[in-house]
Design brief:
The complex is a heterodimer of chains A (132) and B (432). Chain A has 132 residues and is of the alpha+beta class. Chain A contains one helix and nine strands, in the order αβββββββββ. In chain A, the strands form two sheets. Chain A has a five-stranded antiparallel sheet with strand order 1-2-3-4-7, with no helix packed on it. Chain A is elongated. Mean pLDDT of chain A is 80; it is low at 1-25. With 432 residues, chain B is an alpha+beta fold. Helices cover 57% and strands 17% of the residues of chain B. Chain B has helices spanning 11-61, 71-88, 121-129, 176-264, 271-298, 308-320, 338-359, 393-408; strands at residues 92-98, 104-107, 132-136, 153-161, 167-175, 325-331, 363-370, 374-381, 411-417, 423-430. In chain B, the strands form two sheets. A five-stranded antiparallel sheet of chain B has the order 2-1-5-4-3, with helices on both faces. In chain B, strands 6-7-8-10-9 form a five-stranded mixed sheet, with helices on one face. Chain B is rod-shaped, with a radius of gyration of 46 Å. Classes of the chains: A alpha+beta (132), B alpha+beta (432). The A-B interface holds A 56-57, 78-85, 102-108 and B 65, 70-76, 78-79, 82-83, 106, 108, 110-111, 113-115.
């Protein structure tokens, strides 16, 4: 019975580990205006999100750093919970990453942006949030 | 041109003044009309631009869900066209897309997005009819609180539709100054054309009017000379007739009257014949008096400034015989020219004659006063008066003759009268 309990705890721990890595690891006010957040994806990749004011609009920049060049990802960015932009991208270059920039409207109050990127081949998920 | 005593009496001056007034009026009227035309055209341009932006650019780019206020859909619309909408046409100052409930779904002023305001009647009418309307913005409205454009804004609405088929109101704002600038662009060439045409008319007309004025002046001078000669000739003729009558007929009649009186005293004359001779002598004397009165009327002896008071007394003596109380006063006419004195006397004569014949007055006043510039006559009675506007042809003949006499003499006459209120004749003539 003890061994079953230990196995269950180990299994939960194993499941909990990737879930925990999805949460943003760091957040900062950012230099040069805007807010930045970053964190680890569910496997070995990392994400970064940045939101800054741009002439009355908000520019949201999302980056996902993979482990290899040529990894295919589906990504989407929500604005206050509503899907605003989505697409497909492939990691490339020496940084083995892809990035997307999108301009958003700057609503009254705080705007919340959420990144969701899913690696097509492995199902690795990156989730990040940034507010401005 | 010296024939025109007052500058504005000169036709050339009148033409220039009239041309300037016409120029000013035309300038003002063309300005008003072309400003309206310019505004109309500018507003029409703004309507076309709004329809083009709304139906040609914004409507195809509206994603599904935006009509529900979905923020992501609004983002997508903004990225497709919204961020650039205001800059497609440089005159556009603000863009708003309204839902029928008054919610602003999109504006380049982000703070307005998803805020709700009351739509006015015109906006509702455009939403329902699909027409395009333009009006000056009421910047006091809450929806316009971010508008700080000086000189005001023109807002134009048109109807567009969401992909779900819901009617939306597309609204574009334009600077009023842009509209006014457009008016000026329309106005300027039109005004230049108008000013050029009027200037050309003025340039062509001035020499023509100048020549005509010169001719008119010469004709007026000739007329004045002729008039003066006619008056002189008339005076001379009166003088000659008076002298001939006085030296001839009057002397002979006087001698005959004396002779008849002398013959009647002869002892050999029978009483019946004496009576006839005395009656004839008496009749001759009456005729002689009438003839002398006529001579005074034709040409009063010594008619000059110094003799005018006596001559006027002679005139009023006739009125005194009818029981009328008369009063004569003369002042300030020393050195007045004879032709002026003659005119005063003739007008007084006519006025007194009318008073004696028609006024049934008890008081008659004749006043002459002068200064260095002019001589003025006033003949006033307290008689029955008359209505100058309704006077009979016989009565008005005398007045017309009086006016003609004064006008020919270079003076001005005025007759004031009313039934039961007496009559006053005023005359003024320049001393020079």
């Amino acid at each position: 019975m003890k061994s079953r309990t230990a196995l269950a705890a180990l299994t939960l721990s194993a499941l909990a580990l990737p879930l925990a890595t999805v949460a943003p690891a760091t957040a900062s006010g950012g230099g040069g205006g805007g807010h930045r957040t970053s964190g680890a994806c569910s496997q070995s990749s990392h994400w970064r999100l940045k939101a800054k004011n741009d002439s009355g609009r908000i520019e949201v920049e999302a980056e996902v750093h993979g482990v290899r060049v040529g990894q295919g990802w589906r990504w989407s960015i929500s604005h206050n919970g509503s899907p605003s932009a989505s697409g497909r991208a492939t990691t490339r270059g020496p940084s083995r990453s892809f990035s997307v920039n999108r301009l958003m409207i700057n609503l009254a109050g705080t705007d919340h942006f959420t990144l969701r990127a899913v690696r097509s081949a492995t199902g690795e998920v990156c989730r990040g949030k940034v507010s401005l | 041109m010296s024939a025109f005593r007052r500058p504005w009496a000169n036709p050339l001056v009148q033409f220039v003044l009239a041309a300037l007034i016409l120029f000013g009026l035309t300038w003002w009227a063309t300005g008003l009309l072309s400003e309206r035309a310019g505004k109309t055209e500018a507003v029409a341009d703004a309507r076309v631009t709004t329809e083009l932006l709304g139906r040609g650019v914004a409507q195809p780019a509206i994603p599904r869900g935006m009509v529900k206020g979905d923020v992501g859909a609004i983002d997508r619309f903004a990225r497709r066209v919204g961020f650039q909408l205001k800059h497609i046409d440089g005159d556009v100052r603000r863009i708003k897309i309204w839902r029928a409930d008054g919610t602003i779904l999109y504006s380049d002023k982000n703070r307005l997005i998803n805020r709700q305001f009351d739509l006015d009647a015109e906006q509702r009418a455009v939403l329902e009819s699909g027409a395009t309307e333009g009006t000056l913005s009421d910047l006091r409205r809450a929806e316009n609180k971010f508008e700080t454009e000086e000189g005001g804004l023109l807002e134009v609405y048109t109807q567009i539709r969401s992909p779900e088929g819901e009617p939306l109101l597309f609204e574009a704002y334009y600077k009023v100054e842009t509209v006014q600038e457009r008016s000026r662009q329309v106005l300027s060439p039109f005004r230049r054309i108008t000013a050029g045409a009027l200037g050309a008319v003025l340039l062509i007309g001035l020499p023509l009017i100048g020549i005509l004025t010169l001719r008119l002046t010469r004709a007026a001078r000739a007329r004045e000379r002729l008039m003066a000669r006619a008056i002189d000739a008339s005076e001379a003729e009166r003088r000659r007739i008076a002298r001939d009558l006085h030296d001839g007929v009057v002397q002979e009649l006087a001698g005959t009257a004396f002779a008849l009186t002398g013959a009647a005293r002869e002892p050999s004359v029978t009483p019946a014949v004496r009576e006839d001779l005395l009656a004839s002598s008496s009749a001759l004397r009456r005729s002689l008096r009438q003839l002398r009165s006529l001579l005074v009327e034709i040409h009063p002896p010594g008619l000059n400034a110094a003799g005018l008071p006596a001559a006027l007394e002679d005139l009023t003596a006739q009125a005194s015989t009818t029981g009328m109380e008369t009063e004569v006063s003369v002042s300030g006419i020393e050195g007045a020219p004879d032709h002026v004195v003659t005119l005063v006397w003739r007008v007084a004569q006519e006025a007194i004659r009318n008073a004696v014949r028609h006024a049934h007055a008890t008081h008659l006043e004749v006043e002459v006063e002068g200064d260095e510039r002019q001589v003025r006559l006033r003949v006033c009675d307290n008689g029955v008066g008359f209505d100058p506007d309704a006077s009979s042809s016989n009565g008005s003949y005398g007045l017309r003759g009086l006016q003609s006499l004064v006008h020919d003499g270079g003076g001005r006459v005025q007759v004031e009268s009313a039934p039961g209120a007496g009559t006053t004749v005023r005359m003024a003539v320049e001393r020079g």
